[in-house]
Amino acid sequence: MRVLVIGSGAREHALVQALRRDPGVSDVVAAPGNPGMAGQATLRPVDPADAESVVGLARQVAADLVVIGPEVPLVLGIADAVRAAGIACFGPSAAAARIEGSKAFAKDVMAAAGVRTAHSEIVDHPGELDAALDRFGPTWVVKDDGLAAGKGVVVTADRHAARDHGAELLENGHPVLLESFLDGPEVSLFCLVDGETVVPLLPAQDHKRVGDGDTGPNTGGMGAYTPLPWLPAEVVTEIVTEVVEPVAAEMVRRGVPFSGLLYAGLAIGQAGPAVVEFNCRFGDPETQAVLALLESPLGELLYATATGTLAQAEPPRWKDGAALTVVLAAENYPARPRSGDVITGTEASTPDTEVFHAGTAQRADGALVSAGGRVLNVVGVGADLTEARARAYERLAAIKLAGGHYRHDIAQAAVDGRISIPARV
Ligand code: GLY
Questions:
Q1: 322-415: same fold as 184-312?
Q2: Which of 98, 318, 341, 379 has its Cβ near the most Cβ atoms within 10 Å?
Q3: Confidence check: pLDDT of 151 > 70
Q4: Does this model's pTM top 0.85?
């Protein structure tokens, strides 16, 4: 099987690598890809947001399967165009991708499916902002009601900060979503979904704030780990049966069946799991850790999802142990990341680690340089989280990037036993 992966981040790099491990995959083409993928995939230029460009490339490389990584092309309907060209595509239609593209649509689906989520209000006029803020708090959750790569979210106990963020979004023409704050540890559960068939992958936890101890602004994600030693298996089952399956069924009922990866971001509170957000694609950086433990052939699973045969596929098998990923970010990320800094030390391989490229580029003289906010991901795999952490951080210590920064506490709270789910009321 020839697979074309669309995207250029560490998530797509991890997908490329996992596809290479699948004996049923003969070739992987990544477009536009990144310098780190060059040894594992043929890199081809593409405009991921342009249907003609993606379909043209899929035909040129005779792709049997197109895997679309990021949300923007999905929301724009690129998967629809690939399928219309008669090529199997892993990724939802534009209509189904609204589960991520419009938070108002997601709330409506959840309400119809009886799924617990935060109470929310949309504000689309500056004159309504203060009164709406008064109906929320003492912790305010202020979101951009569109795609913002995690950076459009401010969670704060400071009403002025909440107001400033809401006002700035409105000034830039973005409707604001205010939400009640959901308490409890967060879980990312990725599910392969083909209509009403739902197959969960391992649960993971992201670290969204930029600084150690969950301080500083929200980011696209600074690190993640899997599995979650503090999350009982029955809660994963509960998420599947009481959250993801009802949402998948509701989308079928509406005539917009979901096909691809449905990412449920949840908080596990006193009343049980509640949805923070749905995304229509693999999460970044959780995917880099989750796929590190996948033993089953990834191409087979994605192809089965894309062709409506997921119910007949063998369920995924997983390695024992744990995996975590740490993100190396550029100076000034997430505000205005600096680009063009030389990166060294990525080749100094150590056992059970991987380096995935995210925001990197090759300079004319061949040097590897930073070219984005999140620059690299270092993944460590071990018998448990302690070993996986030690391996990832050891490998990261050998990588040099001027001004680069990363969190030192990825999975530390789980290792220390400081995460527990509240007793049910
Ligand atoms: N891990 C956050 C995201 O992928 O949106």
A1: no
A2: 379
A3: no
A4: yes
Lookup result for tokens 């990341």: 337
Rg (CA), the chain: 20
What is the per-residue pLDDT across 69-113, written as a single tens digit (0 to 9) for each?
A: 999 999 999 999 999 999 999 999 999 999 999 888 999 999 999
Ligand 1 site residues, Cβ closer than 6 angstroms: 150, 206, 221, 279, 283-284, 286
Question: Which DSSP helix (H) or strand (E) runs through 216?
Answer: strand 215-218
- DSSP run (H or E) holding 165: helix 159-171
Q: How far is the CA of 311 from the centre of ligand 1 (A)?
A: 26
Q: Could you tell me which residues come within 8 angstroms of residue 101 by beta carbon, excluding any fewer than 6 positions away?
A: 71, 75, 146, 147, 280
DSSP code, position 37 = G
Omega before residue 35 within 30° of 0, cis: no
Task: Write the CATH number of the domain with boundaries 121-179.
Answer: 3.30.1490.20
Residue nearest (by alpha carbon) to ligand 1 atom 5: 283
Judging by beta carbons within 10 Å of its beta carbon (0-12, 13-18, 19+), is residue 3 exposed, middle or buried? buried
Q: Roughly how many angstroms between the first and final C-alpha of the chain, as a whole number?
A: 50
- Residue whose token pair is 């950076």: 151
**CA-CA distance, 256 to 106, in Å (whole number)?**
12
Q: Is the dihedral of CA 319, 281, 379, 7 positive or negative?
A: positive
Q: In CATH, what class is 2-94?
A: alpha beta
CATH of domain 184-312: 3.30.470.20
Which residue bears the tokens 């002025």? 160
4-59 residue pLDDT tens: 999 999 999 999 999 999 999 999 999 999 999 999 999 999 999 999 999 999 99
Regarding the domain delimited by 322-415, which CATH topology (the fold level of the hierarchy) does it fall under?
A: Glycinamide Ribonucleotide Synthetase; Chain A, domain 4 (3.90.600)
Structure tokens at 71: 């949300």
Nearby residues of 166 by Cβ (< 8 Å), 6 or more positions away: 123, 129, 133, 142, 176, 178
> Residue 122's CB: how many other CB atoms inside 10 A?
15
CA of 142 from ligand 1 middle (Å) equals 17
Cis-peptide, bond into residue 175, ω within 30° of zero? no
Atom of ligand 1 nearest to the CA of 279: 5
Rounded to the nearest angstrom, the distance between the alpha carbon of 122 and the centre of ligand 1 is 22
The answer to whether 410 touches 390, Cβ cutoff 8 Å, is no
Which segments of 283-424 are extended strands (E)? 322-329, 343-344, 353-357, 360-362, 368-370, 374-382, 400-401
Task: Break the chain into its structural domains and give their ranges.
Answer: 2-94, 121-179, 184-312, 322-415
